[in-house]
Amino acid sequence: MLSYEQPMTERELHRVRLHVTGQVQGVGFRPYAYRLARSLGLTGFVLNDASGATIEVQGRARTVADFIRRLPAELPPLAAIASCRAEPVPPLADEGTFEIRPSAGGELTDAQVTVDTATCPDCLREMLDPADPRYRYPFINCTNCGPRYSIIKRIPYDRPNTTMADFAMCGLCARQYHDPADRRFHAQPIACPACGPSCWLVDTRGKRIPSDDAIAAAAEMIRSGRILAVKGLGGFHIACRADDEHVVRRLRRRKHRDAKPFALMVRDLAQAAELVELDPAAEELLAGPVRPIVLLPRRPGAPVAESVAPGLDALGIMLPYTPLHHLLLGADLPPLVMTSGNVSDEPLVRANDDAIAHLAGIVDAILLHNRPIQRSIDDSVTQCRPGGPVVLRRARGYAPRPVSVQAPAGRTVLAVGAELKNTICLYSAGRAVLSEHIGDLTDGRTYRRFMQVINDLEALFDLQVDLLAADLHPGYLCTEYALRRGAGRLAGRPAVPVVRVQHHYAHIAACLAEHGFTDPCIGICCDGTGYGTDGAVWGCEVLLAGPAEFQRLGHLRYFPLPGGDAAAVQTARPAAALLAEAFGDEATALGVTDRLTEPERLEQIFQQLASGANCPPSSSLGRLFDAVAGLCGVARANRYEGQAPMLLEAAAAKGVEEAYPYQLTEGEPFAIDHAPLIRAVVADLQAGTDVPTVAARFHNTVAAFLAASAGRARELTTSAPAWRDCSGRPTLRC
Ligand SMILES: [Zn+2]
Ligand SMILES: [Zn+2]
Q1: What percent of the chain has pLDDT over 70?
Q2: Which helix (H) or strand (E) holds 240?
Q3: Within 10 A of 5 (CB to CB), how many other CB atoms are there?
Q4: Going by CATH, does the domain composed of 559-718 fall within 3.40.50.300?
């Protein structure tokens, strides 16, 4: 990474210029370089520039070499060097010292905006020390921790460009901010009780509730069973005790959220261990600087109300990540429900007035503060897997950390994502910046947020997009946005080409990019819905995918989806379709359909299947799970996305080894035939086999046919030239 090979003679003065890229802005990198250079007696300077940081150091050859060697080895915790290029420059006469210079101007395409980071141990220690000026101060932070992305308005990341601009620093804060030896040197959100933000409690009409300590008063209200809104880092949470069934049920009623699981916040790892099974990897993820929600196996007898996560065997928990959370949970509270502060499916609330207007019907009081939130950011959601953590919702703590992508230079690309769980991606110069989780674009308000995030990210990184990438689905709002913008029909936006990308190919290509693969790979996509190149609803796809094109090697055998999108809600619809595929005319008289829905409803679905009206063909794996969940009686409908499969997974017995039969058909692409599997499920149910066993055998079968598909794909790609004619063109230009 570091390359500097210059014959160095002792005594002579040498000067070297270092161009450093990576996570080096807003993370204490400049004071770190300053301290290192000073400790070695070197002169020169460090400054932030468009691509990261530039350092010049001057001194004896050995000392300069020492600096270059130690620079990457002793970085502050949040900093990361992506590259460091060194070049010799002529030494300067009369340079007396090493200094930190103001940020340079210029193109900002490559600068890094860093992530919001959980309160560090040093700040926590100070916050709990009665002798410290920031004792119990809920906005304590330093160079190693605190808000970043949620408060930045423009780059470079300097205080006037953040929502802290209106808080004038007091003497103490200013001294620390300007002292290169201090932990808070250039900590842009630096604050203290004398000069920084504060918090207060209001009732549902916005009237202040008097108290000496708003956080202690809020904690007391929560303890007594009230529901509170709490302003946090990237939005509002709704908080209440998680151990009281009545309280959680009341929250569900008020929030109009009948089943979707709530996230929990616990005080520390010890409290987490009472609720869920922990291992070292889970502890590291929970207590690390990102502090995401981690989905973990629920412990039997965990002191959590049943209605927190009805029917599920996992709980989503997180640890406090702001000083305010630490103070709140530190008041000896039980585990709290901490769910995002919005009415179900509406975008996040971030302004104080909006919170009072929108949340008054849900909560009993609101804990506010006056540090403005520049952009709404949800909590990230992760899962621990054997290969490391998997991010299910990438937001706080991850966004907008870029992914390095090996792609041709010179293009600036905006990819607008898909409809559900939308995020967007901005690509330039080898780096892909992913936005925070935006949400489901079927909602008009979320669509507005989608456009805000696009405008915000393009402005923040000062990029001119010259290519748009959009999903192949003709009905997605995001695709429509790209087509309108591409055609020059959006005010102030020039016409640019649009590339349409198949949904599952995009999933696999993203995975390849994330892991730095550029060779063609066999990728298996297990999904609910994606528009196929043949117009069918794809969802279980075995692809040979490279950076530029793909070939469909195999898929789940098509079955009709009666009612189209409605088939993703009512499990009887895919179940009836799969029964009809497996049994033909006998499907209506199997004696296992009474758990699905009322007989008349089922009869209508079978009639629709017979007529073929509005029954698009599908290879959706999600609908296969839905169908089996329906047949087993664990879910008649998905009341939130993925509910039926989650309930089926939770129902599955442990330790069951058997699987049902399936078949891979010949042909290009090959098909995974589900009829043998469905016939075996029905036979088990007719024989009275218990649901946990059926659920487990079903999961084993899915694992088996996916593994077999990978094997078949391997045979197909090694016995023939890797790239043959694709059945559908991988990407379509328009
Ligand atoms: Zn700190
Ligand atoms: Zn201060």
Answers
A1: 94
A2: strand 236-241
A3: 6
A4: no
Per-residue confidence (pLDDT) for residue 111, from 0 to 100: 53
Whether the per-residue pLDDT at 15 is higher than 80: the answer is: yes
The CATH topology of domain 400-501 is: Nucleotidyltransferase; domain 5 (3.30.420)
- Helices 691-718 & 643-651, crossing angle to 10 degrees? 110
Alpha carbon of 725 to ligand 1 centroid (Å): 56
pLDDT at res. 410: 82
DSSP state of 573: H
Query: How far, in Å, from the CA of 219 to the mean position of ligand 1?
Result: 24
Is residue 244 within 8 Å of residue 225, measured between CB atoms? yes
Ligand nearest to the CA of 164: 2
Of all ligands present, the nearest one to the C-alpha of 187 is 1
Nearest ligand to residue 144 Cα: 1
Sign of the Cα pseudo-torsion (495, 499, 500, 505, in order): negative
Q: How far is the CA of 64 from the centre of ligand 2 (A)?
A: 37
- Closest ligand to C-alpha of residue 76 is 1
Q: What is the mean pLDDT of residues 430-435?
A: 87
Closest CA to 315 of 248, 374, 253: 248
- Among all bound ligands, the one having the nearest atom to the CA of 195 is 2
- Enter the CATH code of domain 199-369: 3.90.870.10
DSSP string, 431-492: EEEEPPP-B-TTSHHHHHHHHHHHHHHHHHHT----EEEEES-TT-HHHHHHHHHHTT-STT
Which tokens sit at 234?
Answer: 């990237």
CA of 381 to the centre of ligand 1 (A): 23
Q: Which residues surround ligand 1, an ion (CB under 5 A)?
A: 120, 123, 142, 144-145
State in Å: Cα 125 to ligand 1 middle.
Answer: 9
CATH of 2-100, one of 3.90.190.20, 3.90.1150.10, 3.30.70.100, 3.40.350.10: 3.30.70.100
Are 113-196 and 199-369 equal in CATH topology? yes
Q: How confident is the model at residue 184 (pLDDT cuts 50, 70, 90)?
A: very high
Cβ atoms of 154 and 458 within 8 Å: the answer is: no
| pTM of structure | 0.85
Centroid of ligand 1 to alpha carbon of 192 (angstroms): 13
CA–centroid distance, 456 to ligand 2, in Å, is 30
Tens-place pLDDT, residues 148-172: 999 998 877 889 999 999 999 999 9
Counting ligands in written order, the one closest to the CA of 176 is 2
Q: What is the pLDDT of residue 619?
A: 98
Indicate which ligand has the atom closest to the C-alpha of 120. 1
Rounded Cα distance, 249 and 255, in Å: 10
Identify the CATH class of 113-196.
alpha beta
Tell me the pLDDT of the chain averaged across its residues: 91
Ligand nearest the Cα of residue 145 is: 1
| Closest ligand (CA of 184) | 1
Task: Kindly state the tokens that stand for 152.
Answer: 């930045």
| pLDDT the model gives residue 442 | 85
The confidence score (pLDDT) of residue 730 equals 36
Domain limits, the chain:
2-100, 113-196, 199-369, 400-501, 559-718
Least confident of 331-335, 411-415, 460-464: 460-464
